[in-house]
Design brief:
The structure holds 2 protein chains of 2 kinds. By secondary structure, chain A is α/β, with parallel strands linked by helices. Chain A has 12 helices and 19 strands. In chain A, helix 1 links the parallel strand 5 and strand 6. Chain B is mainly alpha-helical. Classes of the chains: A alpha/beta, B mainly alpha.
């Protein structure tokens, strides 16, 4: 069930709760498909990395009227932090939009960071929100330079709803996905409390990037740190998992956006970490236990060369119920599956809230607090959201959406046991340098910010 | 295959007139496999110079009236020609040709030329000719509105795109709509003895946009060529209205040079250009 690649240490596994199947019975079950990259040994994290491909970044800032004040300051602050965090061989373009689109800076090498920051500080708020046109112009700035050995990414910072030009989320996502396939990926940043999280998460999913939200530049620090650490330490990029069920078996990957299918994009895999996908199997009584599931991963290495892992085939012995009962379940796999179930629940609850059934949504979150089999992280997140809802219902609803996503798609530690069996505390003092490995409590709040987020623990 | 910048054969100290610059750029582009529509003329050099895309030339130390262009302008011209033909507006091209401290160096432009000689798949998806203008956001434009010219004479943009994207090529492009409107106007409604006279007089209008002026100049030139060949009652001629727009016009012997016809064709052309801008 495991394929080792001796040349690079990459590993693709299919992991099951128990090492057997009930004999002759049809059943539905979930398995974990896991891609692991070995630890990087030659250079420590936080140092200038030479391994990752240089980035062409288009920073697209919403300067519509509603951004006046704190949200625009936050967007500019974020953009400045981004520019300061890039490497000298990276390039950046700056685009603003309200009802019009303005190219503040065409794509340029980062030789004069302060000049760019000064240009950012001159941005002022204006009219409507032509979100799609803004994104499109950002993409146009970097699209001509797309090659396999550069990372091309648009980062869209907005507080609002698309209300000018193309506004249909599905149509926007389709265009964003099309461009992601051509090499220009998109991450989104929701600012303030009024942005359309459904649209922004959809864009980030379609754009093969990440979705962040927050109210201050500090809130977004962790998100960007995570995004750039992952890029800096990338071992593989643009991972796509493909699965196929054996005879009498239907296999579906549970994707980040709640949909299912036989392929899913897993994103970027850093050194010393793992990416997981939960695959649901519908196993008929007439199956061939020798080949239940086949999994293959296609990706690019940092130089842009294609890499294929697998296929890896899952085979399980058929056991009678007594034998199966006697086998211990793997708690790490159980935890992974439980978090995936949590992600499903959060998606459902978010939809309830979006449809105005807020009381029902909150009741459902309360019910999750003490759900048996849940990980400590999941339970505490549910508690955090309930507390947040008392103060700021709108933020709580957004938190449901973003937390649900992180249950399903967070980058994991390479060691399965460490990742799932230990619910370790991570606060501002004890956090690991690899932000992407921390289990953050509250996607839209900085761990450093005082107030509510300090109450239940800054992170677990 | 050699990278485009490695194909540049000009000596390091090369200098030449606008005509020589245009000729050198055309030879280089032909050598790289680009077809004739990418080629440059002296007039185009002067136009790009007036738009600030090309760095000002030096004055000839012997004949102070003569302007001398060099390797820097050669690269600027080649890049501008390549990108303009792909639908980039000149403002956007200029954005690529300058750095924080003024025009990019020859080395930087060579790097740019290597990167931009062939359009990426992502660029093709986003290819449009629209400008960043007040009307921009009110009407978002479909991706991939037109097929891009293939560099190096063998690239087939269609084959580089996914099936769904290739399908979008079938959509009616706005450019062809404009071209069709103009052809209809010229074919059906206008009779002019000398098309060239009309457009040349229009050029005297100070409110004319430089893009319109360039298109009209080309129109005038083509019309003049058509009449020079003389004798035929009717003939077709290809007219480039702008770097992004070509039409085939039937030039007839019955063209009447009256004021009404002139005003009609001028107003039609302006209306079409204006409609085009408002659509974008």
């Amino acid at each position: 069930m495991t394929q080792h690649n001796p040349t690079n240490g990459l590993k693709l596994d299919i992991l099951t709760l128990k090492p057997g199947l009930p004999s002759g019975q049809a059943l539905k079950t979930k398995v974990l498909v896991r891609v692991v990259a070995p630890e990087q040994t030659d250079s420590p994290i936080n140092q200038e990395q030479t391994q990752r491909a240089p980035i062409d970044l288009a920073v697209v800032i919403d300067r519509s009227g509603s951004m006046t004040g704190e949200p625009l300051d936050a967007a500019i602050g974020c953009a400045e932090k981004l520019i300061q965090s890039l490497r000298s061989d990276d390039r950046v373009a700056i685009v603003t939009f309200d009802s019009e689109v303005n190219v503040v800076q065409p794509l340029i090498a980062l030789t004069e960071r302060e000049v760019l920051c000064a240009k950012l500080r001159q941005i002022q708020a204006g009219g409507n929100t032509a979100l799609f046109a803004g994104w499109q112009e950002g993409a146009r700035q970097i699209a001509p330079f797309t090659t396999a050995n550069r990372i091309s990414r648009v980062i869209l910072l907005t507080d609002g709803q698309a209300n000018n030009g193309l506004t249909d989320p599905e149509a926007i996502a389709e265009k964003v996905a099309e461009l992601a396939r051509a090499g220009v990926t998109t991450s989104t940043v929701g600012l303030g409390g009024k942005f359309n999280e459904t649209l922004l998460t959809k864009i980030a999913d379609a754009g093969e990037g990440q979705a962040h939200y927050g109210q201050t530049p500090e809130d977004l620090e962790d998100g960007f740190a995570e995004e750039f650490q992952i890029l800096n330490r990338a071992r593989l990029r643009k991972l796509t998992l493909r699965v196929s069920g054996g005879r009498g078996v239907v296999a579906n990957i549970l994707r980040r956006d709640g949909s299912r299918g036989d392929s899913a994009k897993l994103g970027t895999l850093p050194h010393g970490a793992a990416l997981d996908a939960i695959v649901q199997l519908e196993i008929g009584a007439e199956r061939h236990a020798g080949g239940l599931l086949s999994a293959t991963v296609d990706a690019l290495d940092v130089a842009g060369n294609p890499v294929t892992l697998g296929p890896v085939v899952l085979s399980l012995p058929e056991l009678n119920s007594a034998e199966l009962e006697a086998l211990p379940g793997n708690p790490a796999i159980a935890a992974a599956i439980s978090e995936s179930d949590f992600a499903d629940e959060f998606l459902r609850i978010h939809e309830l809230a979006q449809n105005g059934r807020v009381a029902e949504a909150l009741a459902a979150i309360r019910a999750l607090r003490n759900r048996p089999g849940s990980t400590e992280w999941a339970k505490r997140t549910a508690r955090y959201i309930i507390d947040l809802a008392d103060d700021d219902l709108e933020s709580a609803i957004k938190e449901i959406s973003y937390s649900g996503r992180s249950f399903r798609s967070r980058t994991r530690e390479a060691s399965l046991n460490e990742a799932y069996s230990i619910d370790y505390m991570l606060d501002a003092e004890t956090a690991k340098p690899e932000v992407y490995l921390s289990k953050k409590l509250g996607s839209g709040r900085s761990r450093k910010r005082s107030g509510r987020e300090e109450k239940p623990g800054a992170g677990i | 295959m050699l990278k485009p910048a490695a194909r540049i054969r000009l000596p390091g100290d090369w200098q030449g007139t606008a005509e020589e610059l245009a000729s050198s750029a055309s030879v280089f582009l032909a050598d790289c496999g680009f077809d004739a529509k990418f080629f440059c003329t002296e007039r185009l050099v002067r136009y790009y110079l007036s738009r600030g895309v090309l760095t000002q030339p030096e004055k000839d130390p012997v004949d102070r009236r003569k302007a001398l262009f060099g390797n820097l302008q050669f690269r600027q011209l080649v890049l501008t020609r390549l990108l303009a033909e792909r639908g980039w507006d000149l403002e956007r091209v200029q954005g690529q040709l300058v750095g924080f401290k003024g025009p990019k160096s020859i080395g930087e432009l060579d790097e740019l030329l290597n990167q931009l000689a062939e359009p990426s798949q992502a660029e093709q998806l986003l290819f449009q000719s629209r400008r960043v203008s007040p009307g921009l956001a009110s009407q978002d434009v479909d991706l991939c509105s037109d097929e891009m010219p293939g560099p190096f004479g063998k690239s087939s943009p269609r084959s580089m795109l996914s099936e769904s994207v290739a399908g979008q090529h079938e959509r009616q492009s706005r450019r062809s709509v404009i071209a069709r409107k103009f052809v209809l106007a010229a074919r059906e409604d206008v009779t002019l003895r000398r098309l060239a006279d009309v457009v040349e007089k229009t050029l005297a209008d100070p409110s004319l946009h430089p893009d319109e002026a360039l298109a009209l100049r080309e129109l005038a030139q083509m019309a003049r060529l058509a009449f020079k060949s003389g004798g035929k009652k009717e003939r077709w001629t290809r007219v480039r209205l702008a770097p992004w727009c070509e039409v085939n016009l039937r030039v007839g012997g019955e063209i009447v040079n009256d004021k009404e016809s002139k005003e009609y064709i001028i107003s039609e052309f302006r209306r079409i250009i204006s409609d085009y801008d408002s659509v974008l």
